[in-house]
Amino acid sequence: MAYETIRFERADKVATLTLNRPDRLNAFTAKVHEEVRAALRDAAEDESVRALVITGAGRGFCAGQDLQEVRPADHDSGRDLGQRLDRNYNRLIRSIRALAKPVIASVNGVAAGAGANLALATDIVIAARSASFIQAFSRIGLVPDSGGSYFLPRRVGQARATALFMLGDPVSAEDAVACGMIWKCVDDAALAAETATLAGRLANAPTKTLGLIKRLMDASAANTLDAQLDLERDFQRLAGSSEDYREGVAAFREKRPPGFKGR
Ligand code: T3D
Predict the structure, then answer these.
(1) Going by CA atoms, what residue is nearest to atom 40 of ligand 1?
(2) Which atom of ligand 1 is closest in space to residue 170's alpha carbon?
(3) Under the phi-then-psi rule, with left for phi > 0, alpha for psi from -120 to 50, and beta for the rest, what region is 146?
């Protein structure tokens, strides 16, 4: 499929989705959502893809909703923001969490509003040192969306999250690492190479197991210890019957690196 607002490339078991409207800091329009949905479907269905990277072209990662596309007429025509969230952002975040493969956000620049929360919805966030994260919603009179009010307090705690949501202040990549919002920050010039190394490691890992880890992590946010122990038992049963588990144990015994197939 030919895309207008994103790039979607596959190489060496890794798919890379690049938001590609740099003059608008890769803000989301309806067209971007449509194309991202198609790319995420592709990434899910293509068994040769074992890790997905989401990044942005130019100096920004994603500035959230394109505010040029928002029109008061949306309200006049009876289409409210709740409907837009259901149709676009909520589907986007659910698709990322449902993807049974690791997803990396490689945050190359500012991530604002839904752009920040898109990053937080991925499994591992690596950022350029010059990047920043802004819960910009309240600056324009909106509440956080795209899962921000779910992910952020779980990562940084209620006190920080509430202040960030209410104040809309930028958080530097270094501070984001320090407060547990993201995994790692690297020099700007090293971001592409570090992302490729990380994606390569994940793409050669036991993919089905990583998909189960993802589900465990999501469930742990709401589960009791008892429920989580039961889930670990169920998922270990699945992981334990995988080809990759057999390979992992065989490789350990034979003192060689494992060759996981993602099965
Ligand atoms: O409507 C719904 O569906 C509800 C869903 C809402 C989800 C949301 O994401 S709400 C939050 C929307 N996003 C924002 O409020 C962020 C708006 N942008 C900014 O605050 C700033 O641009 C940044 C802090 C992100 C970056 O600042 P800076 O100084 O580095 O860049 P800039 O000069 O502001 O932006 C560069 C260009 O990108 C500029 O265009 P120009 O003047 O050079 O022609 C700017 O207008 C454009 N741009 C940046 N963000 C957006 C945008 N254009 C449209 N929509 C944007 N969100």
Answers:
(1) 24
(2) 24
(3) left
Mind listing the domains of the chain with CATH numbers? 6-203 (3.90.226.10), 207-254 (1.10.12)
Please tell me the distance from the alpha carbon of residue 262 to that of residue 102, in angstroms, as a whole number. 12
Per residue in 123-170, pLDDT tens? 999 999 999 999 999 999 999 999 999 999 999 999 999 999 999 999
Tell me the pTM.
0.97
Structural tokens at position 185: 């920050």
> What separation in angstroms does the CA of 144 have from each of 24, 87, 93, 118?
20, 16, 13, 12
Token duo for residue 178: 């320090």
Tell me: the pLDDT tens digits for 51-90? 999 999 999 999 999 999 987 655 566 568 999 999 999 9
Torsion angle of alpha carbons 207, 100, 13, 131, nearest 10°? -110
Give 167's contacts (C-beta < 8 A, 6+ positions apart).
138
Measured in Å, residue 115 CA sits from the centre of ligand 1 at: 10
Helix (H, G, I), strand (E, B) or coil at 66: coil
- Residue closest to 106 by CA, chosen among 1, 222, 193, 227: 193
Atom nearest to 25 CA in ligand 1:
38
Which atom from ligand 1 is nearest to the alpha carbon of 136?
Answer: 15
**Residue 148 Cα to ligand 1 middle (Å):** 18
